[in-house]
Amino acid sequence: MSYLFTVLLFFYLILFANAHADLPLFQSFVQRDGLAGNFVTRVAFAPDGAAWLATSKGATKAQGKSWVTFTSAHGLGNSWVNDIVVSGDKTYFATNGGGLSLLDGTTWKTFNTSNSAIPSNYVTAMAVDKQNRVWIGTLGYGVSRLDGDQWTKHSLANNYVNALALDANGNPWVATSNGAFFFDGKTWVQLTQSTGLASSRVNTLTIAPDGRLWFGTDNGVTAYDGKTYRSYKKSDGLADNAVTAIAVDSSRVWVGTTRGLSVLENGKWKTLTRADGLVDDTINALAIDANKNVWVGTPHGLSIFGGASLVPATTLPVVLVHGWHTADSDQLDDTEFRFIRRYLQQDGIQVFYAQGISPYKTLFQNAATLRDVIADVKAKTGAKQVDIIAFSMGGLNTRSYLESSYYQNDANGTFSVRRAIILGTPMAGVQMWYSLLTREIQDRPTEPSVIELTPEYADLFNRTHAPPVTVPYDLLIGDVRGQSGLELLKDFPPNDGLIDVWSAHALNGPQVRRVTNADAHDWSPSPSIINVTAYLYPEQTYQRFIRNALRDPDTRPIDSAAAPVDPIQPRNITPMNIDTLRASDTITRSIVIDTNRATRFISRWNTGDADVKLRAPDGTLYTPTTVRDSFSQNAVIVPGATKKGSLDGAYLKADIGNIIFYSIPHAQSGTWSLIATRLDKGDKLMLLTSYADLDADLKLNAKTDRAWYIPGQPINIEASLSNKASGTDVRVRIEWLGEGKSPRGDATEYRLSEQANTGTYTQAITGLTRGGYYLARITARGTNLARERETIFAVSPQTASLGTNVSARADASGITVNASVNATRAGDFALGVTLRDTRGQLVASLTAPVTLQAGTQSVSVKIPGYQIRARGIDGPYVVDLILMDASFAAVQVDERTKAFTTDAYRANDFSQ
């Protein structure tokens, strides 16, 4: 290798001395290529040849095409890493302000001044001896040794350590700005300029394979063999006297300076700079791998001299799919993605935004929009695939595309998506805030999306869709109950503030991976002042889960699988008060509390700003300044938590959702007064909804006998109180949710009849002939009790029906199902096709949006062969069909279970 280097350098100097090389001698890498950051502080190598690259923004493990970065979000004490040492299967990280971190397999442990006897959190250098003892140098606190969990401290004449190395006997050598120090096991010996060093300001040191010590100073480099000193300076051929890094192999000495990289071979110095391909002339770190490639860390990236087989991280364009509502401009910089866009671009990832997806469109219409966006991205970039990051309802829009014929039967679209990272999406509908969602449905008559967020719609969607085997889904959901400022959400099941964990993970499939962290469901384009951690900002979630996933060519899960949680139970609430407020209006509403238990008083409004106070039955006034803990997103109250008053309770105002919570641990029983005042001067009417969420044994249960009816069919509603109380006034208000029309019409109220003093109340409702979804709001009022439950059901619009003629044909490309359909009007429909084996095991399911003409026609839907093959389940296959009217939020119009059974195909008969 020495001869090869000499020949290469000779030809370089002779042939390219004036113009420099057109082809650089170095491979260079920056953050856009896979590094955690550009400021590279140290390079180390693992036994398997992987390189560990310490930077000011984390540590990256790089090998071949694999780049994996670790930051404080993973477990590092601090993302600024000064040094890395690999010892067996353990990797140690010296951090700047975060102490000493250890990665043992997948387990992180950090030693800092709050949990150990480490003398400082600022660790500058590190080495591990043969007894697995860790020696560290610190900033201002000298040298310490960790043996097991015990620390031994050593103070030096200068305790600011610049570098540390162990000789063949395991004795430490330390570089400081007041000379170098050597410890023989008993005493420390100091070397300075007066003893032979080029300068007492020693920046770095290393121990060569022949045992010689090399010291880098601010006045050159010195070699020391234990007896004699030999120094080299700029006048001898060094690029500069300020030496910052040294690495030595069997025949060459590499010296990093602030003005380039110098190499000593056969007694001669030569210098390489940016003109030769170095990414920067200032050298922070040098290391030589097993193949004698020289790795050079600089403030502006990494350069490698030699033939290292490292290649830049391969990333795909990322398409961002926004949540339910986003900025009115529908421009990326105005949306919740404005921060993650910057993170992605810093890592060299091309970012695109799925413009045109709207809450005023159906899931099927948004799926078509996403299809077109991805096709455009592929055309612009030349990429064959994209990755998707979908937030909130964006996950449902993503599923609607991937699990439909738009994706799976599109010759130009199949395999267009490598992976989908889905953040905070309610796969089983919005459960925890279902009651408030029904109010949103009432207030948003022209938005199909709000109905598509309900558990009832989710049931239909999940019966007609299934994740494709070829696209991994990573479902990330937060549980915020431990975050500061959100403690009152501890009274709820695991949730991210809006979506419960169970719903977010209520999806099955061979490549569905479920992950939980502590993120909040914050969709504002600006970070919250109370500093909650959300999916899209600050940067922790991107660093912890998303960055490495987008750099991973093998699409491994973004993290280990989350533990399952129990399904959420319906909330126990009082009847909702719905009020209209103009500017400066104040209203007072009564809320009956029947038990001295924990109670959440909730107020939400649609526009403007409001203030809410509570008065207890005994006259005690609860305000943001009288309760013990107050939190306000806009910091009107306080920026975070503070002790405001003596009353036992918590207050939270979240402007992002126009919502105020009071959490009272022991609410007095009796009638409470809720006083709401409109604060803004806006002209638009404010609709304010208020109610209480109770920890009470008494519950109201209510349901319809079916989820789907044909016109005129009786809707049987049953309600019961858990204490079986008789004589309660139980009523239901039925409201048609329309076809995108506003206004929808008035609700109709019915009183339920008690069944023989059993505490069960029923009513059969007839005459509902309009197709679509209906909201049933059931209330029960009695002496010292008031409860409410809501449910949604559907009536078929009978705009189409399935015929009896169903067939299927198969070839290597898949199974095509043909079904006859009779439409009474032309319009948008969708046909869901599901294949199961004869034991009921799911093979594939997708939905085909179709436009039908009035009359009888045949609809064909193809289940791709690669999906069947990937499932590995042999036939025969049973075909189930569900036909939906998709003119608004899709509603079922007909269904055929076991409509057809195919021949006994084998999964391997189909093409990949």
Question: How would you characterize this protein structure?
Answer:
By secondary structure, the protein is mainly beta. It has six domains: 34-155, Methylamine Dehydrogenase, Chain H, CATH 2.130.10.10; 160-292, Methylamine Dehydrogenase, Chain H (7 Propeller); 318-550, Rossmann fold, CATH 3.40.50.1820; 577-690, Jelly Rolls (Sandwich); 700-795, Immunoglobulin-like (Sandwich); 800-909, abc- transporter (atp binding component) like domain (Coagulation Factor XIII, Chain A, domain 1, Distorted Sandwich), CATH 2.70.50.60. The chain is built from eleven helices and 60 strands. The strands form 14 sheets. Strands 30-29-31-32-33-34 form a six-stranded parallel sheet, with helices on both faces. Strands 35-44-37-42-41-40 form a six-stranded mixed sheet, with no helix packed on it. Strands 46-53-52-48-49 form a five-stranded mixed sheet, with helices on one face. β14 and β15 (172-176) form a beta hairpin. α3 crosses α4.
How would you sum up this structure in a few lines?
With 912 residues, this protein is mainly β. Helix content is 11%, strand content 41%.
Report the C-alpha radius of gyration, rounded: 34 Å
Largest sheet: 6 strands, parallel
Strand order in the sheet with the most strands:
30-29-31-32-33-34
CATH architecture of the largest domain: 3-Layer(aba) Sandwich
Mean pLDDT: 93
Number of domains: 6
The CATH superfamily of the largest domain is Alpha/Beta hydrolase fold, catalytic domain
How would the global form be characterised?
Answer: globular
Q: Which CATH class of the largest domain applies here?
A: Alpha Beta
